[in-house]
Amino acid sequence: MLSSALVRVLTLLGIVAAFLLPTTSAQASAPLRTHAAAKGKFIGTALATGPLGSETTYRTIAGSEFNQITAENAMKWESTEPSQGQFTFSGADQIVNFATQNNQQVHGHTLVWHQQTPGWVQGLGATAMRSAMQNHIAQVVGHYADNPAVVSWDVVNEVFDENGGWRSSFWYNTLGQSFVADAFRAARAADPDARLCINDYNVEGINAKSTAMYNLVSSLRQQGVPVDCVGFQSHLAIQYGFPSDMQQNMQRFAALGVQVRVTELDVRMQTPRDSSKDATQATYYRNVVNACLAVTACAGVTIWGFTDKHSWVPDTFPNEGFALPWDANYQQKPAYTAVHDALAGGTSGDTTAPSTPGTPAVGTVTSNSAALTWSASTDTGGSGLAGYNVYREQGATDTLLGQSTTASITLTGLSPSTQYQVYVRARDGAGNLSGNSALATFTTQSGPGGGGGCTAAGTVQTQWGGGYVIQPVTVTNTGTSAISGWTVTFTLPAGHTLTGSWNATLTVSGQTVTAKNAAYNGNLAPNASTSFGFQVARPSGDTQTPSAYTCA
Ligand code: G3I
After folding, report:
1. Which domains, and CATH codes, for the chain?
2. pTM for this structure?
3. pLDDT at 235 over 90
4. Which of 16, 45, 229, 529 is placed for a possible disulfide with 259 were both Cys, Cβ 3.0 to 4.6 Å?
């Protein structure tokens, strides 16, 4: 007889296989979940129990377009344990049963939050509050621990302020930071197989709040606290701009070893709605999906609801709304097409490589750069020509020197007085690579590059009593030839200490900080810029920040 644990694993595997299996015949008109599954990602939505019980169209779209479900409210503390020790799962079970019927996974939301938690919890003393929290987690996670549909949980939600300090919630004020680690440990004990997440808003880009989250996750994992995943809520608004460093931010969390995910995506606009705002909104949705697709550790994207008919936004932000991909009449908006096409991009089924590019012709060669052009490739496999890779021929393992979307490139960061043999391969939208072009040979001029030089300038992104974030520090190649590395130095005022950095490697000696480029942002063509950032703690009352940056 199969043990219940084995049955659970087998059932889980079945569900995972059912929604992850790529379909070879994914058509452009296929639902979002088909395309997401082909990419190995989930596409989720949050569901409300009211319309789920009463509206056929709501059920049809929810069941057919998505492969992951979050309960918008039904799993929150006020719903599952309104009075101490009285657990009710009617709404939560309604959501989980719907998901099971539709072969969807469920992400549990949320165990420990400062909102939608009954008054009886908030009034407890420290010892009683800690044990109420541990019991709540044990009961709620335990209720679904043997249910193969429920695969992950938001264990703690929204613990930081915008400036990166701890939110002054009743949790923090009563228990200090320790409630976070205790909550994760209780959740792991209740379901060793569930993926455990920390979740927040305004952490999509690199800023003080996301850096605080980054530092917390890093420190918890170093202590062995079971934090498996980080959720970026992504409640965006077109009037505030898109967090263009979202992919970079997800990537830095991924480097900590955690899974990342977009958990509550919506993109609101100010009323009235018009076609231009719809188009901008669509680009935001596309950018988010593309950021997740580009980060291997990103598991998927959940949209916070799907129809403007049932959205939290107008209740919270007067004169704003229309945040979702379906309008209030269940008609698809441009945002739907954007999500669909981003997920469908690089259409699966295209296994035909582009034609081989022509032999590169060598143009201007300097001590560290070389211009190449070649005759273009064509692609007939369906996904379309995406661009070209240029490699250095070096025998067993050739080096990728650069990428271009057109049939030309200026290679930079080359070594002086060096012979290069290079070839080009075309790539299509499905990732197929063409054959190698014939080789081109050139030798760079003697160095140094000449006309080299760079500048650096820092901007205070945010500051508070005890610290600040400098982002971006913009590094610009002001010379006439490309550079392949840079070093920025600056001085921290006395008593200031570095607490975090990104997109450069920083070393501190006394109060002098030396920032060297990361592996991926050292090459700068003339006039090109890149940036890095860092966070500093300072004595409270001190308002100083570094005043000058030098670049070499
Ligand atoms: O169910 C009652 C109903 O009986 C009553 O008549 C009505 C009157 O206002 O309220 C109903 O409850 C509302 C509940 O949603 C269900 O619709 C609450 O007032 C309302 O505050 C609650 O809002 C939810 C909000 O969290 C509460 O903070 C939103 O639906 C939900 O979308 C939103 O979700 C949060 C995530 O959990 C965490 N991240 C941010 C996100 C947006 O705020």
Report:
1. 4-343 (3.20.20.80), 361-443 (2.60.40.10), 454-551 (2.60.40.290)
2. 0.66
3. yes
4. 229
